[in-house]
């Protein structure tokens, strides 16, 4: 048996896909994540020679975010991350109290989720979801034809388009 045969494809504590989040100030981002989403830093930060964060990891909502500081000359790379929560409104309120800006108010959508968005102080866009019901294909088809659900989807789409338009300014 080779060492490769004994190793798991995915190291313990990680998932098959773990996002990297590059921030202007990773320390401030970790503080925001702790206050808004109950994240906790794991392990120790690795600092670059200039004191910037070269690597950090946080656990939030059962996932691992790998993080490091943006370096001079690099473009701004705001992340877009979805988080499922027990209560979307409560989570939005916590994110706003931690310094985020509201992008999309909590809105019930045809497929059984409430969706909201906030932009955090580092510029990352958080898609906050709350599962409220399982919706079968027949009911979903009916809902997509319902003007109130169409208006909800139009609002969610337009609030995102408006926010992303700000990135080009």
UniProtKB/TrEMBL annotation:
Residues 13-131 form the VOC domain. Pfam families: Glyoxalase_6. PROSITE patterns: VOC (PS51819). PANTHER family: BNAUNNG04460D PROTEIN-RELATED (PTHR34109), VOC DOMAIN-CONTAINING PROTEIN (PTHR34109:SF1). This is VOC family protein.
């Amino acid at each position: 048996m080779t060492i490769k045969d004994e190793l798991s494809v995915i190291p313990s504590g990680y998932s098959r896909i773990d996002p990297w989040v590059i921030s202007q100030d990773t320390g401030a981002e970790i503080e925001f994540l702790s206050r808004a989403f109950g994240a906790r830093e794991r392990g120790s930060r690795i600092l670059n020679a200039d004191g910037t964060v070269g690597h950090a990891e946080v656990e939030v909502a059962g996932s691992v975010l790998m993080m490091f500081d943006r370096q001079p000359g690099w473009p701004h790379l705001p992340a877009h991350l979805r988080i499922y929560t027990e209560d979307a409104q409560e989570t939005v309120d916590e994110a706003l109290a931690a310094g985020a800006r509201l992008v999309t108010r909590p809105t019930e959508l045809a497929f059984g989720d409430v969706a909201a968005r906030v932009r955090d102080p580092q510029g990352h866009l958080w898609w906050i979801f709350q599962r409220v019901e399982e919706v079968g294909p027949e009911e979903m088809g009916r809902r997509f034809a319902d003007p109130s659900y169409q208006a909800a989807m139009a609002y969610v789409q337009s609030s995102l388009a408006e926010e992303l338009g700000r990135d080009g300014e």
